[in-house]
Every structure is written in structure tokens, then in C-alpha cells.
Amino acid sequence: MGKTSEKTSTWLALRNPVFRRLWLAMVVSGSCIAAHNTAVYWTLNSLGASTVLISLMATVSALPATLFTLPAGALADMLDRKKILLAVQLWHASIAIALTILWMAHLLNPYLILASAFLFSAGFAFSSPAHSSVIAEMVSAEELGSAYTLAGMQMDLSGIIGPLFAALLIPLAGVSFIFGANGLGFLLMFLAILQWKRVRPQSNLPLENFFESLSIGKFSRRGLNLDDRNPLRALHSRDQDSFGPARVVFVLYLYYSVVDAGCRLEGITP
Q1: In a 10 Å sphere around its CB, with 0-12 CB exposed, 13-18 middle and 19+ buried, how is residue 45 labelled?
Q2: In 10 A of CB 116, how many CB atoms?
Q3: Helix, strand, or coil here: 132?
Q4: At 124, is the secondary structure helix, strand, or coil?
Q5: Which of 66, 107, 130, 252 would disulfide-bridge 76, Cβ 3.0–4.6 Å?
Q6: pTM of the prediction?
Q7: What tens digit of pLDDT does each residue of 229-261 get?
Q8: Which of 182, 48, 211, 62 is nearest to 122 (CA)?
Q9: How far is the C-alpha of 194 from the C-alpha of 83, rounded, in Å?
Q10: Domain spans of the chain?
Q11: CATH homologous superfamily for the domain 10-194
Q12: Residue 232 CA: distances (Å) to CA of 4, 46, 142, 195
């Protein structure tokens, strides 16, 4: 009984030193990102931005995900995912440091802030598919469920810590401190990913080109066996490099499985 509970523990993946370093860096960097988002709205207000410009923050932040998510998934299959993540961390750090310098030089304006929001979101859109796949490569099949649970928990923790961090420090140190801390958070993520020694999985499947990777029709033939009722086992298969678009099937299957289980526990028919 003790061994069973140990294997299903939420904290199991933290025993993996590689994932532990990444997860701690994610908590710190995620908190800095949440603080940055709070500081951005404070900055827009202090610069006298109109309500239209403030409302556009949500639009420009969501647009890159719509435009770039599918191409990003294809690139994550074709290129080294570690290099993608490292490049995105440097991209984000440079934007945050640029905002810090512009604010200190009194050159920052609402339009530059909107542009930075788009560039930040573009980086997240390109790194998200690689990031989700990298977690599966870092941990064992036994640790995979714990790893994804902890990744979700990290987002909740950062969403609580970050705004509080900003509320306390903006009056004391100013927004430039928050922007700079965000840049350092991305550099911390860079170091955590850099220390990971990736073992590239061997795939027996042919490598798809960019446009083939965008195709949806081959889900059941490549990367994910739809007859396999265990999505975590399918995700951790040996042919991870061919898994690209099948991540969408995995996420949808896992989501509806969780919803179905929750509804049945509550006596509801979904």
C-alpha cells in the first residue's frame, strides 16, 4: 500500500533532479511573469493610456497563439526542442531588459508596451509545444502524471505570488525593478534548461516536413495509437519525435477523460 501511494504521489517527479531544477525555475520565472503583467497595466495607466489601448493588451497577447501555435508544433518536431526553448528564454529576457532600459530612460510609451506584449506572446506560442514535449522527455513514465500535475500547480502558485510581489515592490522599487526581475527569471530558466543533457529518442518513423506536420489526418498512424486507452503511456512512447500534432489528440482525450471521471463521481452524465 505504501509503495502504491508513493508511486501516485503528486511530488514524485520532484525526485528527478533535472525536473526539480526546471520546476523551481518555472515557479520563479512564472512569478516574475505574473508580476510583470501587473506592472504593465500599472505602467499603461501611469502613462495615461486610453481605455482602448489598455483593452488591446488582451488582444495583442492572444493573437500570437492563434497565428503561431500550429507552426510552432511543426517546428518542435523538426528542430531540437532544447535549442528552441533556450532561444525563446533569451528572446524573452532581451525584451524584458529592453523594457527596463526604456522605462529608466523615460522612452517607454503605450505603443511600445503593446508591441512588447505581442513579442512576449509570440515567444510563448513558439515555446509551448516544445515545452510540453520536453517534460515528457525529462521524466520517466512513472513520473509523468506527477510532472504534469506539478506543471499545472506551478501556474497556480505563480499566479498567486506574482501579483502580490508586484503590489509590494512597485511602490518601493518601481516598475523597472519588476521588468528587470522578469528578465533575470528568464535567464534562470535558460540555465535550468541548459543543464539538461537531452538524450534524443530514436524514432523508426520517417521525418515529416513542415507541411506534413501540420496535417491532422495521420494522428492514428503516427505517434499516438488511438486504441491505447492510456494517453500518458502513448505520450511517453519511444517515437516521441514523431508525436507533433498528436499532442492535440492527447490533450483533448485527457481533458474529456478527466471531465467524464469528475462528472461520474458527482453523479452527472456528461
Answers
A1: exposed
A2: 20
A3: helix
A4: helix
A5: 130
A6: 0.74
A7: 444 544 454 444 444 444 444 444 444 444 444
A8: 62
A9: 9
A10: 10-194, 210-265
A11: MFS general substrate transporter like domains (1.20.1250.20)
A12: 18, 47, 9, 25
